[in-house]
Structure formats: C-alpha cells, structure tokens
Amino acid sequence: MEIRLEKFSKSFGPVKVIEDMDLTIGDCEMIALLGPSGCGKTTTLYAVCGIHKVTSGRIWFGDKDVTALPPQKKNVGVVFQSFALYPHLTIYENIAFPLRIRKESNADIKKKVDEVAGVLHMETLLDRRPGQLSGGQQQRVALARALVRKPDVLLMDEPLANLDAGLRLEMRSEIRRIQRETGCTSILVTHDQVEAMSMCDRIALMNDGKIQQIGSPNDMYHRPENRFIAGFIGSPPISFADGKVEDGSFVTPGLRFELPDRIKKASVAAGQNITVGVRPEYLQPDFATPIEGEVTFIESQGREVLYDITLAGGQVFRSIQTGEQVCKFGDRIRWGIDVNSAFFFDEKGDRI
Q: What's the CA gap between 173 and 116, in Å, rounded?
C-alpha cells in the first residue's frame, strides 16, 4: 500500500507544526521519520493514523483519499511507546481485542491470533498476562495486536523507547524481520538515528516541521545535504571546524590544509567563511593531511577506542580507532585527516 502526503499541513491554533509537506512511502517500504523532539514527526504519524485532523493538504492510501477518515475507518495498525496492554486480559485476549471489536467469529480470531503469534515466536505466551512478561515480550504483544488485523499500514511511535539497550537491539532486528515477512508498508517515528538506520529502507530527517532530506541510510551518512544532517547522523558524531578560504586552502587557528579539487571547482572565493566536517573514522594516525593537538578525552569501547583531539585554536576533533589504545590522556599527537572524505559547508550550512 503506497502512502502519499500532498502539501500536508498541521497547526494547533496559531502554531504551525507542519507546513506543505510532500512525502511518498512506497508499497512494502519501511521509512523512518527521524529528528529531534518537537520537529513534527509524531504529529505527522498521528495525521496519517487519523488521530490528528489535517489542517490542509491530502493523505492517500493507494488511490484512496483518507484525509478525513477517523482511525477506525482506516485499516492501520499502531504501536505506541507505551505498550498499552490490558493487564486483566491474557496475551491471547490482548491480541484478539481488535478482532473482537470487528465482531469476527471465534474460529477466525483463533486462526489469526495463532498465525501472528507464530510469526512473532510467542506461541507459549498466549495464556499469560502482561505482568508476567518482560518488556521485550510485552512489546511483541503490542506488535502482534497491531498486525493481527492485517493492516494496510503499520505505524510505530518510538516503539523501543521503554526497552533497555539489549532488548532494543533484539527488537530492532525482530521488527525488521516481521515487516519484511508481512510486506506491510510501515512508518517508524524515532529520535534514535541507530534505530532509523538499522531498521528502515529510507529515512526522512525532519527539523522544525520540514523534511531536511530523504534517502537511504547510506545516502544520509555519506551524502548529507547540509550541516544539520551531517551532525545528526553518525555515532560518534562528526566534528566541525569553522574557517576561511585562503589561497585555495582551508584555514582556521591550529589547522591549515589545501582544499580538495572538487571544492575548488565549486567556486569558493578567497575570504569565504566555510565549515569543514570530519567523521571520526577519517582522522587516523597514518592519514596524509596532518593535524596536531592534545588528547583531551579517551573512551575505550572494547574493540574500538574514541579519542578527542583539541587543536591549538580550541577546536575538538574526534577519532575512532580499532584495536588497543595507542596513546594516553594529555599526549601531543600528530595524526592526519582524509580531506577527500571530509564535508564542506557554506555559511548557510548547505554542503558545497
């Protein structure tokens, strides 16, 4: 089921949250609405669901205009951040609840509940109650309840936020597996870029009610369209330094290097203010363009070590390296950056 938002706008009184958004989600695709708190991603999800009334614009499910339809008239499954299970009902009855509302027969209900329980590997849990389950198991129940009605669209609002780190990892792969098996067009709302990048076919990165960029996780990481996107995507985060163009070089206190040919050809002018962004993997001891500074932070993560390098001008660059720790806190180092893999941004924040 393809979903299309055409010139979608949503206001709460005088406050405009979303204005003239266009977004198409392909049949069987899973897309993430990613962004910081208050960017409008949950508002968009609730409008697709029918919980929020659209201020202007149109929402289409395939060739059907569903803009004005309430949630009960749309065949959507919704998974919320809170599991919202009925504590007095068994797991079977929790999953069967939307089917009973439809007044389906007991035989059909049993067949559908058993089927979705098998997909989620929870056949042995059906006689229990929510209080007897772990957080991850309860989230599976919430997902099963959304899927049992065979929805055209699956909507998930921060579904993993209440789980610990280990369960989040497990449920990321589980939800993605189920989405692929069922072929259900899905929207995931999250502020966690790792969830978005690991679970979804594409990401729509939002800020201040607007989509900044839509693309695959690989595109968002390697080809960000502006500084906000480059800074939001990536863990550990990218390092930025502001400087100027002088004689074909990037210059800032404590750092000077020749600009790559692709940046020179972009007609940057002498004296122009630009920003360089370097991801941690592109600052390494054996890279060519030298960078000197002091090691001001070290974080060992087992197979990887994260370093903060503070330059003479006060800028901080990050480096992530595999293997054992190669230096200690306070050391003066002379490492290098891969300038051909660096990003450059103009004064407006757009990538050059």
A: 17
Q: What's the whole-model pTM score?
A: 0.89
Per-residue pLDDT tens digits for 282-305: 999 999 999 999 999 999 988 999
d(CA 315, CA 339): 17
Pairwise CA distance, residues 93 & 215, whole Å: 40
What is the C-alpha separation between 349 and 18, in angstroms, rounded? 22
Residue 227: inside a domain: yes
Evaluate whether residue 27 is within a structural domain: yes
Number of structural domains (the chain) is: 2
End-to-end Cα, the chain, rounded Å:
37
Length of the chain: 352
Place of tokens 């058993």: 114
Are 34 and 93 in the same domain? yes
Whether 30 and 52 have beta carbons less than 8 Å apart is answered as: no
Q: Are residues 339 and 217 in the same domain?
A: no
